[in-house]
Amino acid sequence: MIPAVALAVSGCAAIPARTPYTAADLSSAAPLGGPQQVRFWSEGDDAAYDRWSASLLDQRRKAGLAMPRTLLALSGGADKGAFSAGLLDGWSRRGDRPSFDMVTGVSTGALIAPFAFLGSQEDAALTAIYTGIGARDVYRQRVLRGLFGGSSLLDSRPLAKLIARHADAALVERVAAEHRKGRRLLVMTTNLDAQRGVIWDMGAIAAGTSPDRVALFQRVLLASASIPGVFPPVLIDAGANGRHFAEMHVDGGAVAGFFVLPSRLLAQAPRDETGRGAIYLFYNGRYSPAFKVVKPETFGILSRGLATALRYLDRGGVEEVRRFTRDHASAFRLCSIERDTLRDDAPLFDTAYMRELYALGTSEAAAKPSCLTR
Fold this sequence. Notes:
Helices cover 42% and strands 16% of the residues. It is an alpha/beta fold. A hairpin with a 4-residue loop joins strand 7 (184-191) and strand 8 (196-201). Mean pLDDT is 86; it is low at 1-13 and 270-275.
């Protein structure tokens, strides 16, 4: 078996020539290192989703558990994930942080998700990751190679090593143990070949029997955080009809900034002892519009325009969840970064900036904001 670290890092090296495959191949493909039911399309895959949800509900019923009712969704946001890490730590210190039935993550939210899923005992690891690293722990610049035929502007091998160090075999086994109890950890990537979002059941990967399950777990996390064009895409080996090929996966944020489960499953969730289920969304960015005088420069205008478009897509998703929870007498709580910091213009993955966001998260949790209460 190839060591997990080598497998994870290999996704960041030069992209090899790819084996052609078809949409028909993909429809029946299973990732090598994971069972068939380890994933489903984020949209338009009702049959696979129904099989997955039926299996989950059957497992919970046999264990005498209710339908899933408490969900934490973690958004993308790159280094702003430090805000969510701080919120989780502060919530733990308050002493009323729940054990979530499900945790979902996209991009930096995907990197946080396994630690949030495992509970307060992992807060120290999250603190170390989001307050103790800098840019060189995440990427190396290779702008010229990216501009002249390469697959990205940055080299994400440092990030792959960071993931391998923290999402190691011991953590994967702990995720597997919680999966067997009927809890679920879900992460989204984007299959760039298919132009569709893919939801991965990380607990199913962890609880599988493949000797490569740890490497697959790490590669999915890396893929979910790989911004297309900025970080290299991650090739995930798959097989169908006796053929092997590599799927190209990138940041789940190319499809959506966050996700919750389809309403068919959530609608079945019973009310808890307070009379309400709950969906918590930690949005690693500013949810409300922020005024700023934009300089008349090409890249500044492009950046501002893209940020505006993505924010309004996310706002649409938030309002959809808000309507659902209102119609089903459930609680919806949104935590986002609404205060300016001293370092909002800091370079990507600036350590001081992440520490400031982390401190903001812990202070907001200590103040018992409405986003953490029902």
